[in-house]
Amino acid sequence: MVNAIYVWGIARALGGRVMLRIEDHDRIRCRPEFESALIEELEWLGFEPDEGSNPLHRQSDHTSSYEQALATLRDRGHVFACSCSRKAIGGERYGGTCRARGLEAGPGRGLRVEFDDGTESFDDLLLGPMRQTPSVQCGDLLLKDRDGHWTYQFAVTVDDRLHGIDLVIRGTDLLASTGRQIKLARMLGRGDPPQFLHHPLILKPGGEKLSKASGDSGVRDLRRAGFSAPDVIGCAAAAVGLLENPRPLAAADVPALFQ
Q: Are residues 87 and 131 in the same domain?
């Protein structure tokens, strides 16, 4: 909800366009009913992509693009197979266990790209100057997991380049992903990376993110409870400080928050 406010509000304020991309890279967790619910909620709220709801850009329809990008990295000698499970790694950072093992790619093995020790600098449009060292944060980046699914980090980097995305707007929970995506995009041949803006999230009193899996209310729940679309937008905008107090706010009025 907050992401829609920032994406549509800033895009309209800057005269930009909004693309609806379904990031269904994980074929186990993604289901058609989830996609339908997302589209229906955006339409009810009044946030319509500039291309309309169709055609949608689904990652599951663009396997050939990811294969081509993978071939580019392989040709440059950066890709290796990895048999390590998430449990074996024990955290977010991969320590390079399989980098020199020369494993053959195949079932039960993921694919990673080697990262050097370079630092990535970028200016977040909301948070200011940032410096990240991907090799320290995440180590060699996973491109394809052991079940054969493309990873989020790889798929969105390829998509942003192919679609010509020049401004990525997302929550602060993904701030740490930015340096590694800029580095990966350069390795794939992208010159200038997109600009990035990471916005605040609505958090629980204890600081945790809201989650439907934890029983937190979503747009559909609020709609069923009798809230109007402007009610929902206004409450979300106030929760992250875009409004001083909650008040009904139509989608058409959201760009004024960023002007």
A: yes
